[in-house]
Inverse folding.
């Protein structure tokens, strides 16, 4: 049976750090589904359809990847997609407490779905979507933080 992993997140926008996690996950699992959350409560900078487009463009050269948008519980989506693994990224100690709580919550909803935590390479460890959004707000340089395809989409939107 194929090991299907779900990588959920807001991806507002998808960064080189996210991309690094995706590449690492592909070495471990047969299929990776990038699940872009609507996350309206977070008031994302980019519309859901734009974030899905960015993720698709950033990963189009990778095999065994699919990208979808969603607005339900992650565990429900995992059931719908037959995913038995949730992927979460850890950049720093500051991420750990939140991610641990989220992992325990998901386990309480379905203890057959495992959460796997992956770290990006050190050169990407400082990158977050919020840092990128802040830079974009000031028209700052983001080429070194975003996949080339994502950078292009964002520049075309402005």
């Amino acid at each position: 049976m194929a090991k299907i992993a779900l990588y959920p997140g807001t991806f507002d926008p998808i960064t080189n750090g996210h991309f690094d996690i995706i590449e690492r996950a592909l070495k471990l699992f047969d299929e990776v589904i990038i699940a872009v959350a609507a996350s309206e409560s977070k008031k994302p900078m980019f519309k859901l359809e734009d974030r899905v487009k960015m993720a698709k463009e950033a990963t189009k050269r990778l095999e065994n990847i699919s990208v979808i948008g969603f607005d339900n519980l992650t565990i429900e989506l995992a059931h719908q997609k037959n995913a038995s693994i949730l992927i979460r990224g850890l950049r720093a100690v500051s991420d750990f407490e939140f991610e641990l709580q989220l992992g325990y919550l998901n386990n309480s909803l379905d203890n057959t779905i495992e959460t796997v935590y992956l770290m990006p390479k050190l050169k990407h460890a400082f990158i977050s979507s919020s840092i990128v959004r802040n830079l974009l707000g000031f028209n700052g340089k983001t080429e070194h933080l975003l996949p080339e395809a994502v950078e292009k989409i964002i520049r075309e939107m402005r």
Observations:
- The longest helix spans residues 93-109.
- The domain at 4-157 is CATH 3.40.50.620 (Rossmann fold).
- The chain has one domain: 4-157.
- Strands lie at 4-9, 31-37, 65-70, 85-89, 114-118.
